[in-house]
Amino acid sequence: MGKKVKILANRYEIEKIAGKGGTSVVYKAYDLQAERAVRAIKEISKANREVYEMAKQESALIKELYEADQSNAFFPNIIHRFETDKNFYIVQDYLDGESMEAMLEAGPMPYKMFLEAAKQICSFMKFFHDTGRVLSDMKPENIMVLKPSKALTDNEANIKLKFIDFGTAIKNATGVTGYTPEYASPEQYRQLKLDERTDVYNMGATFYHMIQGKKPLRVDNENRMMTSQERFQFDKTINADVKRIIQKCVADDPEKRYRSCDTVYRDLCRIERSSSVRLMVLCFLLSVISFCGAGFSAYMSHRLEQQSASEQYTANVNKGSYADAIRIDHTNKDGIYSKLIQSFTEDSKLDADEDNFIVNEIKSLDSIKETDSDYGMCMYEIANAYWLYYYPYEDETDSSLSEDEISEENKRIESELEKKRINASYEWFEKAVNSEDLEENAPDSYKRAVIFSGICKFYADIDRMEKEGTDSAQFYSDMWKSIEEMSVYINENNEVVSVRVCQTLLSLISRYSAKFMQNGVRESSQQKILDSIAAKVYRNGDITYSNNYARSIAEAFDMEAVELKLEMAYAE
Question: CATH 1.10.510.10: does it fit domain 97-269?
Fold first, then answer.
């Protein structure tokens, strides 16, 4: 007798078990109502109510996403859902392939295949974010790699991905957090609020696995959170551009990551184009070798690469794309770094992407050399950019908040931002002060750098000293001298510098007026600076600054609160 054929729902002929889990079984089957089209049928036991309900929600979500995806690029099609007394069944297109995790057991992806797969992941994540959701569990295990239509060589990029398992996205919506330790971000470990940048981190960790052929280290280790620098160790053979992209994705501070998957996609396309250009040059050189011999081809290779890079550099400079020009040539020529910083701050904001460029392309590569004639001025200009304009946030207001709540949130952000600005600018002011050329070439800028560096150092030291109980009368006395020196710049012609000086002085006097008094600084001395600020910022109750950015900062000043704290400190 022949083997008995199992039929589900009078429609699906089961061929074999394709996979098993703790609470489910996946069958490969033929759809008898669709000319024996191949299907995957997932059978979920209803014995576990939580798993059953999750399966219903997830299948509904996948169906919704599939229908919203006009290109049908990302998701398997949910064809049918039905139940029996004991089980819940999900019928979908059969994906002929394997998980990316299983594929990577054989080793890392070839470079071209990696770029194509990474771009598909970016496109999927953008689509998912456009639905207003956060996935928070991107990893190779949740990506299906479909079998190619033809055999691949190591140099081919023919790869097609589908994305599965959206249970974590559903849990996120209910406030329940979960993560996979090897791909998790610091905010997931700390159970903080998640956003698109969390997915960027998970995506970067996935890229690392793809290009390295091994998982990153876990985020948790012996009850502590590991840093990204510890978790992501790169082989020397890894393409430098790919490494930079991954490192930016997995920055511990969300503010230093890519802000969207779109920007990751664009950088992947950029390095793909660069690779294509290099390949074309190489092919040309090989033809030259066969015709003219190795000596001449080496000469031509150097000339072609030099000419191509030079032309691209010049074209980018001419159109004001200084960041792209610097990526081609990091040498500090024609004042390009000064032009870059000016372009970054034209909109009165040094944003997260611009900060990332400075960190990854200038600081990490140490691309501005101390031997450069304008080294000190470059350091000073970068320090000023951070101190005056650093704002690594999106300008989005939660419409559900009241005006008072918005005001409180803005105060919280400004307090947090003040520390970020000071900390970010400190090391650059220090480099400017320690340079050999700034004092000689620009003594006024050097003097300002010394003063502002001292203020920054105060911020860096004060929290530690207060906790340790090591702050001293001399410390506050020296600090007050720096404040008095800084107060000269209240009347600076540059309104942005002026308003930042006023803001910093108000903050310092508000917080430490009592400490200053305890250590010999009179109330009248503090009041004199407050009076100077008021005279500069206000005239007949109106703000005097005409610069919109300076006005917006001054509008947040609360002179009465500072005056009140000074009175209370004096009364004590």
Answer: yes
CATH of domain 7-93: 3.30.200.20
> Token pair for residue 371?
């031997």
Which one is predicted more confidently, 182 or 393?
A: 182
Give the bridge partners for 145, in sequence order. Answer: 98, 161
pLDDT band at 405 (very low <50, low <70, confident <90, very high): low
Q: What six digits make up the tokens of 308?
A: 């191509």
Tokens encoding 53:
């309900």
C-alpha distance across the termini of the chain, in Å: 101
Burial of 443 (0-12, 13-18, 19+ CB in 10 A): exposed
- Give per-residue pLDDT as tens, 52-79: 998 999 899 999 898 888 777 898 889 9
pLDDT score, position 530: 95
d(CA 538, CA 554): 9
Nearest-angstrom CA–CA distance, 275 and 381: 34
Query: Can you tell me which residue has the tokens 């996120």?
Result: 172
Residue spans of the domains in the chain: they are: 7-93, 97-269
Nearest C-alpha neighbor of 506 from the set 481, 486, 477: 486
> What's the confidence (pLDDT) of residue 402?
67
User: Is there a contact between 531 and 488 (Cβ–Cβ < 8 Å)?
Assistant: no
How many of the other CB atoms lie within 10 Å of CB of 267? 20
- CA 531 vs. chain centroid, Å, equals 42
Sequence-distant (≥ 6) Cβ neighbours of residue 416 within 8 angstroms? none
Tokens of 369: 């050399």
Q: Which residues contact 182 (CB under 8 A, 6 or more apart)?
A: 139, 205, 209, 215, 216, 217, 218, 219
Q: Is the pLDDT of residue 403 over 80?
A: no
Are the beta carbons of 139 and 180 closer than 8 angstroms?
yes
